[in-house]
Amino acid sequence: MASGEEDDPIIQEIDVYLAKSLADKLYLFQYPVRPATMNYDDTTHLSAKIKPKQQKVELEVAIETMSPNYCRSKGEQIALNVDGTSIEESSTYSTKMMDKQTFSSIQATTNTTRYAAAVFRKGELHLTPLQGILQMRPSFSYLDKADSKHREREAANEAGDSSQDEAEDDIKQITVRFARPESEQARQRRIQSYEFLQKKQAEEPWVHLHYHGLKDGRSEHERQYLYCQAMDTTENTELVKSPNEYLAMLMPPLAEEKIVKPVGPSNVLSMAQLRTLPLGDQVKTLMKNVKVMPFANLMGLLASGTDSTAVLRCIQQVALLVQGNWVVKSDVLYPKSTCSPHSGVPAEVLCRGRDFVMWRFTHERSLMRKEVAAVIKLPPEDVKEFLEQMAIPRANRGWEFLLPTDHDFVKKHPDVAQRQHMLWMGIQNKLEKVFNFSKEDFLQKKETSAEVSHISGEQRLKAARENAREHHASLQKDLDARRLKASAMSSAPTGSDATVKIKEEPMSDTEESMDTSGAVQNGSLNGYPSTDSPDADPHNEHGNGQASTAELQDFVRNTFRKHFVLCLSEVKRLFNLHLASLPTGHCVFGHVTDRMLQDTILHSHCKQILVPFPPQTSASADEQKVFVLWESGETFDKHRQILFEIFMKNYRVRRNVIQSRLYRNSAMRSPNLMWTGCLRSVASA
């Protein structure tokens, strides 16, 4: 040490003083976008304000508009974009020119305990701790204001150009949801979010300040507070330290660093962390996350060597046995004093509804969601959540239990299965009282569905064929009797006997086939030949051709006055339905072919239009034959004919094209309601 002191002699001793007068008010301003030689000392400062808690400072400085480096046209354009053409008190630039600039601060560092401002005078060094170090950068908030003005103008223009007849009130369904309780980790993330920080910054009010230049008298007065006011050492105990204390301050002892564990989601737990918990907590955590699990899988997730008896004792406290598998209890998922995250229903009501679903799964493999909702009377979101926890949807079978029945566990642990069965009997009694049902209600449905499921497809098809044959035989017998009677009346001479011979022919396969509704396919409807029947009589047996034609025309007129536009296949379908609706024995129609039907349509003030359907369409030839009502004697005829002409050019037309075409003719300038109703009748058909 002696040699070291000789090599490093003390040249001068300087007294250091700690000044505290400005300790909580002194800020260091830095201008990182400006060189040190170009300061703002001689620039006119228009205003200054601060938010002390956030250490946020804003300064407004004037811009020298008369400088040769200032672009006057650009300044006027910026002022126009920001304030517009109106003159208001709240305008940013009152001179219609960008004549000022705003500087906004950001914190250079959050910890300023190591920084101080020093002043050297008469061999004394005076230190004043800094309250903050702020970097002043240009603020471009005026651009945000210009953008908002631009969006307002665009919104006003769009609102002015919108058409009144196209405007419709949007009716939207509002769903009320209750916010779930916020966890501590979610609260920390929310506090650290940008939106929360912006909100906190906006809550603190601005404190307006008076700016004094560098050479101002008030500034000189304030600079005197940078010197320590009490020169005696009793007031500066912070700098009076023993050598050991001073050395400890320079070289603090090493402290063990705390290992910060990564913060993960609240519902995620690693297997290593899981196995540090007690066995009961391990089982509860696993069941709460998995919801449904076989006992063998549970043992596989636990540490090797875990006693299965102890696991069985723990699992019965947090889960119930359903079809040999363990399902977590409802009160574990929905503790007391909580509510549904979807609908806000209390936990007690949710537990009863979920217990009902679990009880039903103890007797059935599949459930229908509507049946469950009708009993427990909970919102659809909660019912769906119950089913998703323990079942999966199946096509045409409702919701099926998630796992197959574990018969091995039931055989291996009959005592546990019997205990769980007794527990379910108690739960069933409570559910019957709460929901007012009996077990027999569901068992009868189950037995009925089981009986139906045992009938094979071949048996159903055979039964349907037998019913079809019986029904067709009765219809054929009735038809033969009527034909016999009609033939005898027409061929027998007056006053003499007549002999009638009927040729019996076996029924073909086509005549035997029936559809599922019991109507004869390719045969007769209601005992009379249809337009598609191959057995229809080509001659008019009744001698009433004129009556048949007149009634067919009446049918066509009434049909087209109701539908306006129809394809040929649809007309045939409606005609067959009309035949089926007639009472037995009442028919004036003979054999009606497609050609007869088309001719009748064309002679009933109707017309065929050629709609240019796309070439890839799968429509049949009958479906592409489109017939329309051309003249009906109404005021809509001219409008409808124009629409038909438009649709003959394209099968898909926009509304504005139709509107402009109708308005093009002065004679067609009718109220919107008239041509809108005409358009709906044509387009919907």
UniProtKB/TrEMBL annotation:
DNA-directed RNA polymerase III subunit RPC5 C-terminal domain sequence ranges: 444-666
Q: State where composition is biased (Basic and acidic residues).
A: 145-156, 457-483
Polar residues: bias regions: 488-497, 515-533
Might you report a single GO cellular component term? RNA polymerase III complex
Q: What is this protein called?
A: Polymerase (RNA) III (DNA directed) polypeptide E
Give positions of region: Disordered: 145-169, 447-547
Please report the organism this UniProt entry assigns to the protein.
Answer: Astyanax mexicanus
* Top-level taxonomic group: Eukaryota
In terms of InterPro entries, this protein maps to: RNA_pol_III_Rpc5, RPC5_C
Q: Which residues form a coiled coil?
A: none
GO biological process terms on file: tRNA transcription by RNA polymerase III
